[in-house]
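Sequence only, no structure available. Ideas?
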Amino acid sequence: MENQKPEFPHREFVHKLYRLGRKLHSSDRHAVAQARRQRARLRRSLTDDRFVGDVYEILVPCEVPRAHEPSCLLLAGLFALHPDGETDPKRRWRLCAALAETGSPTAADARVRQLIGSNENGALEHYLRQSVRLIATAPVARPLDYEQLLWDLIRLRGGDEEKARTVRLDWARDFRRQMYMSQHSSTKEAT
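Reply:
I predicted one. Tokens follow.
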């Protein structure tokens, strides 16, 4: 039976990414420079396989099941587009809830529809990159829950259409719920 949250190796991998995000804001200039180089390589791994080895450098010691490696590779690249070192898991946002808070409702709605409608891995990766970039440029920073996103990717790519459909429904619900909450709270503030 599959757990709701990723097992230890997955969590360890995601926590390594979060540590990289914290290093980007370190007071140690050497650590910041090293983290920036690593982030650039992870970002390049999204489009250039020559940099995939840099992700495996982080991934291999975690002993993630081989079937989940493609999802981890994608996640590392997405993390590099919007790195975060948030230490409080309660402050992290699910992907589509964060999209609802970008300040661009039309663009966010389009991204969510594209994510939900993409059945092909290449299209999904493309729309995920666009979505994370949109979140990264939002006026208010929204740290993403990369552990949940990893789990979503594993379920989307696992070959079980029912699990994939559940992820797509969760994404739609997260987006609409957050849009409703944002509109509802701004209506209350106006009165």
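Residues 161-190 form the longest helix (30 residues).
Hope that gets you unstuck.
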